[in-house]
Fold this sequence. Notes:
Helix content: 25-40%
Strand order of the largest sheet: 5-4-3-6-7-8-9
CATH topology: Rossmann fold
Shape: globular
Number of domains: 1
CATH class: Alpha Beta
Number of strands: 9
Structural class: alpha/beta
CATH architecture: 3-Layer(aba) Sandwich
Number of helices: 7
CATH superfamily: Vaccinia Virus protein VP39
Largest sheet: 7 strands, mixed
Amino acid sequence: MKPMDEGHFAILRRHMVELIAIYGDLMSEEIGRATFDERVLAAMMRVPRHRFVPAPLVPLAYQDAPLPIGFDKTISQPFICALMADLLAPERAHAVLEVGTGLGYQAAILAELVDRVWSVEVVEELATEAASRLRELGYTNVTLRIGDGSRGWAEHAPYDRILVTAAAEAPPAALIGQLRPGGRMVMPIGPPDGQQLTVVDKTASGEVRARPVLPVRFTLLETVI
Length: 225
């Protein structure tokens, strides 16, 4: 059988986005809105997910499922990637911090939506691969750093939005501190058997309010001592 080409991938990507929209409609009560932001769906349509998975898994790239990327990490299922971006409510002028780059897929989605993305990855090999893949696809508005994502990236704070692709039992204090008043963070929060994808809003006065959205299962946020 001949290998799939970009035309095949484009069809699969369109079907993936259509499925995301259906799931969004079915889960509208949990999510709190009837439809995804069209900008988010358009970004999901543009970003070639098959360029952000290990080569043996390319044929599976557009299934709505997480896939292993090595080092006990995964690329999240497309629906969750879209949901996290949608809940973040990014605006074009926003500066966004991403914690947990992986191979760069979610960073690419964010780069389609905002002017500047700062992303931190604890695994050096993944960060190196992500930088290469993002560069090859022309995402010049993403800057990567290897390090402990729970500490954020203080040099570029404050951030309008923070997206964390790994779970912690509570929002890391450093990330709350680097979130601009009026800003928002989206991350999975809770124990391993009780994680909830959560929207964390920081009011203009600095008060922090958390709203659980739905149960999820993410790898744990690694910290470096």
